[in-house]
Amino acid sequence: MTSATSTPVRTRRNLPWPIAFYQTAVGKKWVMAVTGIILLGFVLVHMVGNLKMYLGETDLNKYGVALREIGGDLVPHTSILWAVRSLLILAFVLHIHAAATLTAMNRKARPVGYKGGRHYVAANYAARTMRMTGVIVLLYLLFHLMDLTWGNANPNFVHGEPYHNVVESFSRAPVAVVYIIANILLGIHIYHGAWSMFQSLGWNNPRINAARRWFATAFAALIVIGNVSMPIAVLAGVVS
Ligand code: HEM
Fold it and tell me: Positive or negative, the Cα torsion across 88, 91, 97, 99?
């Protein structure tokens, strides 16, 4: 029997609803899906923007300047860029937090695991792949920022000259290979993510499964082909 003087337990009921929702597995899956969509949007826009490299040095460098000048004289310099960056950082942090806490939740719910179930093996394979590719993409992103944004991993880095920096970076074969492998792993992560996000959002009708599979394959393939083409083009001397 509970005594009248015992400390009140803070239950989900008295938490604000977004936090209470986030504490459930469904809430975490929603957050993963919504932040995943934001990150997919970034990866697509970033890839399309970087393809300006094929138009030449002036076009890519002008694009870099244009990103900083979004909003023109109406807003302080780089403020829109920083607003977008803040949204991306928030989405990225929430995506990783939801993934980590969901994994912990699943482990707690079933510490021993099923024995020999085929579906379990398949689901576990996808989850393990997502964790592995997710961690590698995170490490790649850190290296990428050091290479092309901050410049401390790129000996010939010049501030404000993305074309020069990209060419200098990809001219080093080991760096180009890192970009190629990391972007293929990113493609695998995107494929699984784009497929499962519909399920997380409750769009799991068998009639749309073919469309889900098509979307996940096409999106992942587009990103991999676009991103991998750039280091290959520099290595092959097509872009120099
Ligand atoms: C071969 C493919 C890629 C190329 C050529 C490339 C190129 C670049 C360049 C040149 C910059 C610096 C832009 C500037 O400061 O003006 C940059 C920044 C960045 N890249 Fe990439 N990138 C590639 C792939 C990726 C991927 C796959 C991701 C994410 C997983 C990514 C995430 C970022 C982020 C977060 C920034 C910082 C953006 C900012 O500071 O506003 N990039 N990239």
Answer: negative
Nearest of 192, 200, 201 to residue 219 by alpha carbon: 192
Rounded distance between C-alpha atoms, residue 103 and residue 90, angstroms:
20
Crossing angle for the helix pair 57-68 and 25-50, nearest 10 degrees?
A: 140
Q: To which H or E segment does residue 233 belong?
A: helix 209-235
Question: How much helix, strand and coil, in percent to the nearest 5, is found in the chain?
Answer: 75, 0, 25
Give per-residue pLDDT as tens, 171-190.
999 999 999 999 999 999 99
Q: How many A from CA of 209 to the centre of ligand 1?
A: 32
Instruction: Tell me the CA distances in angstroms from 175 to 28, 64, 133, 178, one per residue in order.
Output: 35, 22, 18, 5
User: Pocket of ligand 1, candidates 40, 86, 148, 179: which has the most ligand atoms within 8 Å of its Cβ, to mutate?
Assistant: 148
* Structure-block tokens of residue 4: 């009248």
**Fold adopted by 22-110+117-235:** 3 helical TM bundles of succinate and fumarate reductases (1.20.1300)
The pLDDT tens digits for 114-159 are 554 445 556 667 778 999 999 999 999 999 999 999 999 999 999 9
Please state, in angstroms and rounded to a whole number, the distance separating the CA atoms of residues 43 and 64: 16
Distance CA 193, CA 53 (A): 28
Question: DSSP class of residue 172?
Answer: S
